[in-house]
Amino acid sequence: MWRPGRRPRRLPRQSNSVINWDPLTPESIAPLVRNTIFSGNIQCFQQVESTNSLALAAAARWRQAEPAPEGAVFLAEEQTAGRGRAGHSWYSEPGTGIYCSFLLRPSLSPADALWFSLSAGVAVHDAVHETTGFSPDLRWPNDVLLNEKKFAGILTEMSSEATRMLHAVIGIGINVNQKRFPGELGGLATSLYLESGKEWSRLELTAALVRAVDREIRGLMRATSGPVRTPNLRYEPIIKRVEARSSYALGKAVYVDEDGGYSGVTDGLDPRGFLRVRTDRGLRIVISGGVRPLERGRDAAGS
Ligand code: BTN
User: Fold this and answer.
1) Cβ(50) to ligand 1 under 6 A?
2) Fewer CB in 10 Å around end: N or C, the chain?
3) 29, 207 in Cβ contact below 8 A?
4) CB atoms within 10 A of CB 241
């Protein structure tokens, strides 16, 4: 959230103050995302603390506004306090990455929030594939990898009552044209540029991402609305979409940094979207993440 006097700077309509060859503006994105639930509701900022914070603040204002839009997108050229999962920060170099948050008002239960993260992972995969031809890997729940290094992440936040989600914010960061990363990030993070040796259009990728998120959210809404004969199969189409894009979902030897740590072999997603891992002590369900490939040569079902 921003404080008075430190308001986020919206991008000027005429982009004579651009900081790169590929500025993201509502005018450049709008024609590429017609007929999505986000059409007409895209805002671009030069510098913000965090697009997720911006979206959460807007959501609070929406609650007083009737009619509020179904969806909105908040984009920034730079974040000064970009947030990641588990209290980490998200490195947000100006003008080289995509930092965006999707604000939605779904009629779902708070327990369904994981589906947003999983669907967003599918959307990032598909947008990157459409724009670059790469097929990134999804590491449950929502890291997006190229050559085992992370180049995109998803942070879903929401406000809810006991049984009803009031709004959800899906924050997505994609490393696009970064040439290097500071400190220890250098060994862990990558960008599309570093993996390909060429720069990519953030505008094309952003537009592809907005269209892909629109598709996935519509699919999710279809899955959650209407009767189903077998409730356990309600989310099956989404599970299949995640599993098809993730080498981590099925048959991967992993170490899980949860409950003191254990290793095993992944066995797909359960009906709630959690990852199943077969260990030598039986089936375990990964609740919050921290899944890593098991070092080669170690016993997969070893602890
Ligand atoms: C993670 O993998 O830890 C999640 C990273 C999410 C980063 C994005 S960048 C846009 C949005 N705004 C934030 O402050 N965080 C998310």
Assistant:
1) yes
2) N
3) yes
4) 21
Paired with 9 in beta bridges are 47
Give the position, in ligand 1's atom list, of the atom nearest the Cα of 50.
Answer: 14
Alpha helices in the chain (DSSP H): 26-29, 51-62, 113-132, 185-188, 192-196, 202-224, 236-245
- Cβ contacts of 122 within 8 Å, gap of 6 or more: 138, 212, 216, 238, 241, 242, 245
Does 23 sit in the ligand 1 pocket, CB within 6 Å?
no
Q: How many CA atoms lie within 13 A of 166 on its CB side?
A: 13
Ligand 1 centre to CA of 291 (Å) is: 18
Q: Are 195 and 144 in contact (CB under 8 A)?
A: no
| DSSP secondary structure letters along 136-149 | PEEETTTEEEETTE
Q: Is 88 in the pocket of ligand 1 (CB under 6 A)?
A: yes
Atom of ligand 1 nearest to the CA of 90: 7
Interacting residues of 110 by C-beta distance below 8 A, sequence separation 6+: 158, 160, 162, 163, 164, 165
At 182-219, the pLDDT tens digits run: 999 999 999 999 999 999 999 999 999 999 999 999 99
Q: Which of 52, 100, 149, 157 to mutate to test the pocket of ligand 1 (most atoms within 8 A of CB)?
A: 52
CA dihedral sign, ordered 218, 221, 226, 229: positive
List CB contacts of 243: < 8 A, sequence separation 6 or more.
249, 250, 268, 269
Please state, in angstroms and as integers, the Cα–Cα distance from residue 73 to each residue in 102, 138, 195, following that order: 5, 23, 27
- Per-residue pLDDT tens over the stretch 220-269: 988 888 777 777 778 899 999 999 999 999 999 999 999 899 999 999 99
